[in-house]
Amino acid sequence: MTTRRHVLAAGLAAPTLISTARAQSQWPDRPVRVIVPWPPGGSTDVLCRLLCEQLSTRLGQSFVIENRPGAGGNIGAEAIAKSPADGYTMGPLTLGVWSIANYLYSRLPFDWDKDFQPISMHWQLPNVVVAPSQYVPSTNLREFIEWARARPQGVSFGSPGVGTTAQLCGALFCDRQRIDGQHVPFRGAAQIIPAMLSGDLTFAIDNLASYVPVVQEGRMRAFAVTGAERHPALPDVPTMAEAGVPDFVVNSWCAMAFPAGVPAAIVEKASQAMQQIANDPDVKARFLRTGAIALGSAPDGVWERARRERPLWQEMVRIAGARLD
Fold this sequence. Notes:
The structure is a single chain. The protein is an alpha/beta fold. It folds into two domains: 30-125 and 252-320, Bordetella uptake gene, domain 1 (D-Maltodextrin-Binding Protein, domain 2), CATH 3.40.190.150; 127-225, Periplasmic binding protein-like II (D-Maltodextrin-Binding Protein, domain 2, 3-Layer(aba) Sandwich). The protein is 42% helix and 20% strand. It has helices spanning 4-25, 43-59, 74-81, 95-104, 141-149, 165-176, 189-197, 212-216, 264-278, 281-289, 299-320; strands at 32-36, 63-67, 89-94, 116-132, 155-159, 181-185, 203-207, 220-225, 251-259, 293-294. InterPro entries: BUG, Bug_dom1. It comes from Roseococcus pinisoli.
């Protein structure tokens, strides 16, 4: 039987439900904080700023960047995970957080399956196999593999650090091709490129965007890209499969995320806006100028990709012996 108490309770609850629904439908009605887990000026930061410009225009609110670098992106990721689940904090999380971190660290300050709510894919970027033209005589990938195998002292490959896609790709490549390869960590491409051009480093399988200028100048040869398709920035460079190395499709990628628990209506509104932005021809062109390919997806598309790729990254971490504890 309905009692007066039940009627009063329902009456009190109704304004709260209406208020919550209105807040979700009007999102965003104040500035949104966007935590970038990387320093200013890097590719993740630059591409996030491009996205935030578009979000501000389309949704009528400021999307304010806050850089929180450190620990391979984990500091910023933790800040996102522990923020209020109200739709007013988000950030770009790279595949290191989605698909690699659990294999590199014995403990993390977040649960990669429970603490984030994906919004949409953001971008992807393949690596490229490069070597200095002056010191490596090979003109294609098969020639390079044979040349590297024959080196009495082996070869060296550079990366921006332990656990990066460049280190893991280099280790997997050397393992599968039976090459004696020594990993040499650097701070980034700005140090790797001079080391190769001076003959102190043999090759790298690193972020394509960093190497396009020196490849176009002829100072380095690009043997293959690790994407499933050729990249518009280097259209004459084959994929790994085309170059004779099958089953080597590896892309760096990024997806935008809220902390877990953000209302579904807000997630859907944000996702739809990001998908529209990714399909805008002008945005695509601006992303390509940085070397990246703009992506958009439903939230579940992020989970599908992250979980599908984890076994490969786990294998790569094992082969590389990479740990960051």
